[in-house]
Amino acid sequence: MPSSDISGFHRMDLRKRVEIVKKFANLTLQEARLLKHNSALGLKTADMMIENVIGTTQVPIGIATNFLINGSDYLIPMALEEPSVVAAASNAAKLARKKGGFTTLSDPPIMIGQIQIVGLKGRSYKHARKHILKNKQKLMRITNKVDSTLVKLGGGVKDLEARIIKTSRGKMLIVHIIVDVRDAMGANAVNTMVEHIAPYLERLTGGETRLKIISNLATYRLARAKAVWPSEELGDDVIEGILDAYAFAAADRYRCATHNKGVMNGVDAVAIATGNDFRALEAAAHCYASADGYKPLTKYERNEDGDLIGTIEIPITVGLVGGATKTHPIARTVVKILGVKTAQELAEVMASVGLANNFAALRAMIKEGIQHGHMKLHAKNIAVIAGAKGKLIDRIAKKIVAEKSVNVARAKELMERFRRRK
């Protein structure tokens, strides 16, 4: 099996990088060409995906190397516009390899569908809840008839819950159907199910159903990852600094928001590349982090050997069937590069990337400040904006970073100077 530990990947030209990915993932010539083609998402396909289409846009797709997850090598496609995130994930993964890489665990792909019941008249909410639970098995059988294919694949409704909540509009009875969605994200299947069961619940309770929709807070669908970074590689000062930074995030929500943003840098980038709903992931992650006050999604501590242990627990709702994952040609190719076979495996990969990016951000801030890596890459953008081309881009970028004058005006001055010398 080929290794994802690729030395100097970031220094290779685009053609060479694509060739390596092609070989690693056994891509066809056509699939490899798609990665370089500016119109992989044709307008006809785009027009079927959303409304009012006038064109398409793109963000860069980079490959994070060095990832060893549960003993297997992965190349991780990441789609985003922010400099240094891909490099940071790659560096964090390389350091983690020395202690076995990432180990992961995830829950089955269970989603929650919610039905809101209001306006109960002549019967107590407690009585209505009791009546629903008494008929739970019957309600589950009725709901599972909606998607017999999902049931045949081992999915479908696995449980039903009911709870009473107090709101500014009075009491409400909230029914949850607990659905195993297999390799789907689950929104379409679950939303169809809750709409189907709503009339039965109205007849049982005498109330009216209002909202019937999936919940993005997937507390039954958590992904966990763990990595160990060796003390001899980091040094005691860096480890102590990371532990202090983690304690800061755990105690202060202003810092914690940025801490968790570092996690989502990685999670979202993989979600976008694979055609998954990163907005649902963001909502779930931050809501989950707020269960007991707003807390970090990651945790750091030292083991007996003095190494740094990082862990993450995060709800990740992704799919490999349906939606843009199957519609978008680049998303299909990205999934092939990843080599994931199930939605659970994809979730575990994403949790690993989120942990890697969070660790890398903390390490960078402790060692050199977060702007150092950002500015090195941003300087190339500035050089291009100034009009530089070819090798001149790297020369100007290097100079303006060294001068700490990363601006277009200085880049233009340098470009003219280098051209006169030439």
Helix percentage range: 40-55%
- Kindly state the number of beta strands: 10
Fraction of residues in β-strands = 15-25%
Rg: 25 Å
The chain-level mean pLDDT equals 92
Q: Largest beta sheet: what is the strand line-up? A: 3-8-10-9
How is the main sheet built? Answer: 4 strands, antiparallel
CATH superfamily of the largest domain: 3-hydroxy-3-methylglutaryl-coenzyme A Reductase, Chain A, domain 2
The CA-CA distance between the termini, in Å, is 47 Å
Describe it.
A hairpin with a 2-residue loop joins strand 5 (156-167) and strand 6. Helix 1 (14-25) packs antiparallel against helix 2, helix 4 (85-97) packs across helix 15 (343-367) and helix 11 (253-273) packs antiparallel against helix 12. The chain has helices spanning 14-25, 29-36, 43-49, 85-97, 125-134, 136-144, 148-152, 187-205, 231-234, 236-251, 253-273, 278-289, 324-327, 329-338, 343-367, 370-385, 391-403, 408-421, and strands spanning 61-69, 72-79, 102-106, 110-118, 156-167, 170-180, 208-215, 222-229, 298-302, 308-315. It is an alpha+beta fold and 422 residues long. It is 52% helix and 20% strand. The protein is globular and about 90 Å long. The protein folds into 3 domains: 9-106 and 222-367, 3-hydroxy-3-methylglutaryl-coenzyme A Reductase, Chain A, domain 2; 110-215, Hydroxymethylglutaryl-CoA reductase, class I/II, NAD/NADP-binding domain (Alpha-Beta Plaits, 2-Layer Sandwich); 372-421, Helicase, Ruva Protein, domain 3.
Describe the structure concisely.
The chain is built from 18 helices and 10 strands.
Secondary structure layout plus pairing:
Elements: H1 14-25, H2 29-36, H3 43-49, E1 61-69, E2 72-79, H4 85-97, E3 102-106, E4 110-118, H5 125-134, H6 136-144, H7 148-152, E5 156-167, E6 170-180, H8 187-205, E7 208-215, E8 222-229, H9 231-234, H10 236-251, H11 253-273, H12 278-289, E9 298-302, E10 308-315, H13 324-327, H14 329-338, H15 343-367, H16 370-385, H17 391-403, H18 408-421
Antiparallel strand pairs: 1-2, 3-8, 4-6, 4-7, 5-6, 8-10, 9-10
Helix pairs in contact: 1-2, 4-15, 6-8, 10-11, 10-15, 11-12, 11-15, 15-16, 16-17, 17-18
